[in-house]
Amino acid sequence: MTGLQSTRSRRGYNFAYLDEHTKRMIRRSILKAVAVPGYQVPFASREMPLPFGWGTGGIQVTASVIGPDDILKVIDQGSDDTTNAVSIRAFFAKTTNVTTTEKTTEATVIQTRHRIPETPLQPGQIIVYQVPIPEPLRWLEPREAETRKMHALEEYGTMHVRLYEDIAKYGRISTSYDYPVIVNGRYLMRPSPIPKFDNPKMNNNPALQLFGAGREKRIYAVPPYTDVKSLDFEDHPFEIQQWDEDCALCGAEDTFLDEIVTDDRGGRMYVCSDSDYCGERCAARTAPASEAAE
Amino acid sequence: MYVAVKGGEKAIASAHKLLAEERRGDTQVPELTVEQIKGQISLAVDRVMTEGSVYDRDLAALAIKQASGDLVEAIFLLRAYRNTLPRLATSEPIDTGAMTVRRRISSTYKDLPGGQLLGPTFDYTHRLLDFDLGDGENVPAPADTAPADDESPVPRVADVLNGEGLIERETIAEGDPDGTDVTREPMTFPAGRDVRLQNLARGDEGFLLALGYSTQRGYGRNHPFAGEIRMGDVAVEIMPEELGFAVEIGEISLTECEMVNQFTGTEAAPPQFTRGYGIAFGGSERKAMAMALVDRALRAAELGEDADAPAQDEEFVLYHSDNVEAQGFVQHLKLPHYVDFQSELELVRKLRAAHAGAQTAAAE
Amino acid sequence: MSRREQGPLLRVSSLTKNYGSIAGCRNISLDIWPGEVLGIVGESGSGKTTLLNCISARLEPTMGSVEFMTRTDGMVDLYKMSEASRRFLMRTDWGFVHQSPRDGLRMGVSAGGNIGERLMAVGDRHYGDIRKSACDWLEKVEFDLGRIDHMPTTFSGGMQQRLQIARNLVNGPRLIFMDEPTGGLDVSVQARLLDLLRALVSELKLSVVIVTHDLAVARLLAHRLMVMRRGEVVETGLTDQVLDDPQHPYSQLLVSSVLQP
Questions:
Q1: What is the pTM of this model?
Q2: What does the alpha-carbon distance between residue A134 and residue B248 come to, in Å, rounded to a whole number?
Q3: I need a labelling partner for C209 at 20 to 30 A (CA). Which of A232, B152, C203, C250 fits?
């Protein structure tokens, strides 16, 4: 039995926390996921030192693909400075010593919760999504044995029944995040709770997109340049959110905006949810006076 | 001018300092030692070991201390640590028939070989607060125990029934394969009994207690008798390949419960009793009993019974039993959801506008 | 070419289903021809629902075979098909009307969505078209179109049953199984539903297997009757013949005790 002595130090943990055997197991699952885009590969998810539901799937995927030369960016809600992003970044800084960054363009691996960066991703980059519930059919059919069968037989009609109901009731599809997609013309997939605003970014993206669900023990993937189509009807095509306002900080007109409540009398303003993108734009605007457009 | 909220890193560091302060409490009061927890809060230690899936009293006690007595948090700490441990060997199956029993009761026979042995139990205590206990310095009087008779065997009740063919036989599968390790392979459904029992052994005591209770109240009744509950110490052996024989590496303390359940038989199987099995580290008796009830409930389909109650629903039970998973997901609701909420805000505003438009049009 | 020359749509051969030592139904053979309505009658416990479940690919028989004339591959044994083709068949060429609408409808989905589901399942992706089909079918089953977006829970039993029928018929199946379709309804509601069923069956030239304990229902809908008792068929023949001149003592008992036209 292990004594207390060995637990007192953080030394002794492997690079990126997971042991190499576990990483190999996860990499095998990732390879399978890449080979069958959108298919949920079961994997033996480990108990991590962070709670299930707080990004353990993404953390395990990142830990399995990250190497000493990688540069890691972690965002939550689009921002590098939200507490859970800070916590996960600190975890990897501690267990891998890799360089971390807030710049989307610098990162080789980006772990994200709920957003895809506004800056287009590049070939060679990997984006790792944290997934709470991987099964897109879960709310229609609670049984795993049955949903796996539905995927195998491509029985996705019920998903459209849900969209039909939305239109019948609200005149539009009311799903606004975690909006289901068909990957590579075959598998129905949950993009994780990103806003549907980000769905088009998944399509034909040059980066490798990996999805990890730790508690539910599933990994899936969208390889670079893969077709990702959001479900819709011919006469009710998929559309993304739009705002009447521009970003109050950088003036962007085409980004996903966070609503900031400024007082308790209805005052509010809108700013980019992607803090790196917004910051870069603000810096570019203020720094070289000659380029100031205003 | 608005500036986006910054300082997550600093806030986290401060929060951890505050937590450490709260944990220590009043520094005028001596600090609790791991030894004290191990020795005097031993049932909490047992639960943390059971659901944390590591038999190590020191680590479990440390986890309880670190978690300020929050047992689910302590279980989580132990599980995360367990994940980093090397696997040196797989033990031989333990033989609970050879247990050195400290407690052994059966509700099905008045007397039986080995006898009934009440042992340390809350049963039959009157739940009156003992104010003397609050005064400190307590040295309990030694208990009168029957003279230990090491010679007399304590056969399991199930084996007694088995001798007469009255209870279903537990047969070892062809080739005696190792069970699936649920910490190393994802569960798939339908799950084998090995997977179910492992899952239940790690499962949350409260959850299993409620499910077991529900079967007694009619949601999947299976007519249980507490055939036997035994608690005591069992040797753990491993078989190093190079040796070719088993060597004992230590003893662990266990509570085992075998429920004996009525069964009317099918065309293929004669009427006989069936079993539900529960096991837990240390003195976690309530857990072992609840587990046995749920194990039996989950066998409904296999035994050709109706399986429509929650406790009989394999996916429902096995997917929701793990408190480390459950606490994480419930508490993840504390994480920011600004983006999703923003999407919903936008939608609700749009729908409200459409609704108001329709109302106005109707009014005109 | 007459229908007889095309062969039966469904062929059941020597079918037996045991529950443990108890036989649910024993050694049953029958053919269903295109456009034919077969009634299976008997008391509860006679094995008629077991038989219906076996021949509709919902319950695997202990012995015997059930073959269906598929559109592409001729006669195929249902229990030897891949699960994929069997499930496909069940949502395209077949329908199943349950006694309880709760078993046959999605109670959390609107009337329109219930009807549209089978269309979407086979790939229809035009909301307007799906909705138009739903409207057409609601009209056919005499529904107020204003209720297309209402939930089934807000409908009466008779309406729920008509909705279930529409949901099954929307994509032109050839064979419909019905289990006591008028079972839970008031007499006046039953009569209206039976009229509707009769009209639809003849208009669409459907083949139907209907299980009922109600001989009045059988007389109104079925061309041919099978009388079951204790898991076995005791008499079979044209409906009028069986009801007006029953040969087997059990059929005689059944007819005399129940049928007062």
A1: 0.83
A2: 44
A3: C250
